[in-house]
Write a structure and sequence with these properties.
heterodimer, A: 264 residues, Uridine Diphospho-n-acetylenolpyruvylglucosamine Reductase, domain 3, Enolase-like, domain 1, 3 domains, five-stranded antiparallel β-sheet, four-stranded antiparallel β-sheet, 11 helices, 12 strands, B: 160 residues, alpha+beta, Ubiquitin-like (UB roll), 5 strands, binds flavin-adenine dinucleotide, binds FE2/S2 (inorganic) cluster
Chain lengths: 264, 160
């Protein structure tokens, strides 16, 4: 079971060490140490970083940068990140939230990754030493990613334009049946002018509900107005089956919960 | 496997050990240091029996590598009683029959302690939220919730 842990002061050195086969980055460890405890022999060494910028949250106006090592508890408790508190609190119980990092959530396979769903709706940018990538590109390519994620950045949404919902069977803490985040802008007459909707558990990683987004443009948030979006909600999804819910169940309830999110 | 030096404060006393790299805090506490109050229920983060308080925050010792605790201040349930007198939470768990087999109890007590440290008079919902990462297979939870509320009341009476 023993894993060698190496600690580095700079991102550059950590990235160099991550090139070794079997080596993984250690965030909060809630997935990677769990895997090692479970006997996952593909992990033989872990890398950790003490670089302080990875643990800081910087808010300047509506621009936010969250270091990859920042925990869900730190986000949930941050006075300027109130709009995201619900998504951060959706992750695990209190002890998990004190450990689970933003960086780790970007790599979490379904049914996990609830916070990454929120970041996808916010069109966040993911940073590494090599540069910046849109979260969508990052998620698509994450399996081959060998560099430390240093931070995520996004524009803070206005409180009423961002919505998040997680459905679980056990309250108050439970693994997701699904999660949905929506960033919506409305014109003064109440019609939707832009929509980004992200889904969790509807594929092996967070994905956008592109067809539903398109179907919302020019519509109002009424039962009739959102009907085409709900009809298109499942387009392109391939929900997971796990002990929490089956593929069939997740597909059946997605439009119901998307409707609740949009009409809330 | 290389041994690495680790130093931290456990329940008020300094500990310094040479430990195999990659050892979990749970393993180090139980098998190396001899504090068997944190329990290994699942080693998966799901049961909360291994919960300890690190630098004031509730953590799962089964998913924490001991090397990341260098310089930390760690509390476990075995450090709660003073001179043979049980901590109000321990007393309340006994008095309200909130412990049966006892396996979940040290983790429950740690989760409850962090809550009461920050919120001396919690609501029932706050207690449920604070214990939401801890599983009990015996009591049905209600006595545990009552124990935490009872301990909070006895704390505030003592303070008054
Ligand atoms: C009991 C339990 C309940 C949970 N409940 C939820 C839940 O409700 N919702 C949810 O979303 N998740 C949940 N999780 C999963 C997990 O806790 C979170 O997804 C968490 O955010 C993962 O972060 P971490 O820092 O612990 O990741 P780690 O375990 O440290 O890392 C996970 C993976 O990401 C890689 N990684 C981590 N950080 C970086 C980085 N900065 N750069 C490059 N690679 C990196 C690691 O190498 C590893 O492969 C739960 C886990 C447990 C054990
Ligand atoms: S043993 Fe750590 S959570 Fe179960
Ligand atoms: S008392 Fe037996 S598990 Fe809680």
């Amino acid at each position: 079971m023993a894993l060698a842990l190496q600690t580095f002061a700079t991102v550059k050195d950590a990235n160099a060490a991550l090139k070794t086969q079997g080596t993984r980055y250690l965030g909060g460890g809630t997935l990677v140490v769990r895997a090692a405890n479970e006997g996952d022999v593909s992990v033989s060494g872990l890398i950790r970083l003490t670089e302080p910028s990875l643990s800081t949250i910087a808010v300047a106006g509506d621009k936010v940068r969250i270091g990859a090592s920042v925990t869900m508890a730190a986000i949930a408790g941050h006075p300027e990140l109130g709009t995201l508190a619900k998504a951060a609190r959706a992750v695990g119980g209190p002890a998990i939230r004190n450990m689970a990092t933003v960086g780790g959530n970007l790599f979490a396979p379904a049914p996990y990754g609830d916070f990454a769903v929120a970041l996808l709706a916010l069109d966040a940018t993911v940073s590494t030493d090599g540069g910046e990538t849109s979260i969508e590109t990052f998620l698509a390519n994450r399996d081959g990613s060998r560099a430390v994620v240093t931070s995520v950045s996004f524009t803070l949404p206005k409180a009423d334009s961002f919505r998040f919902l997680k459905v679980s069977r056990v309250k108050p803490k439970g693994v997701s049946v699904l999660s949905i985040a929506g960033a919506l802008e409305l014109s003064s007459d109440g019609t939707v002018t832009s929509a980004r909707i992200a889904l969790g558990c509807m594929a092996d990683r967070p994905m956008r509900a592109s067809a539903a987004e398109k179907a919302l443009i020019g519509r109002t948030l009424t039962a009739d107005g959102i009907a085409p979006a709900l009809a298109a909600a499942g387009d392109g999804t391939s929900p997971i089956t796990d002990p929490i819910a089956s593929t069939w169940y997740r597909a059946e309830v997605l439009p119901v919960h998307l409707g609740r999110l949009l009409l809330a | 496997m290389a041994k690495v030096p680790v130093q931290f404060t456990l329940n008020g006393s300094e500990k310094a050990e040479f430990i195999d790299s990659g050892t979990t805090l749970l393993h180090a506490l139980r098998d190396k240091i001899g504090d068997t109050s944190p329990k290994g229920g699942c080693h998966q983060g799901t049961c909360g029996a291994c919960s300890v308080i690190i630098d004031g925050e509730l953590r799962l010792s089964c998913l924490t590598l001991v090397e990341t605790c260098n310089g930390a201040v760690i509390s476990t349930t075995s450090g709660l009683s003073e001179a043979g007198v049980l901590h109000p939470l321990q007393r309340a768990f006994l008095d309200t029959f909130a412990t049966q087999c006892g396996f979940c109890t040290p983790g429950m007590i740690m989760a409850a302690k962090v809550l009461l440290d920050h919120t001396p008079n919690p609501s029932r919902d706050e207690v449920i939220e604070a214990l939401s990462g801890n599983i009990c297979r015996c009591t049905g939870y209600e006595p545990i919730i009552q124990a935490v509320l009872t301990a909070a009341r006895s704390n505030s009476q003592n303070a008054a």
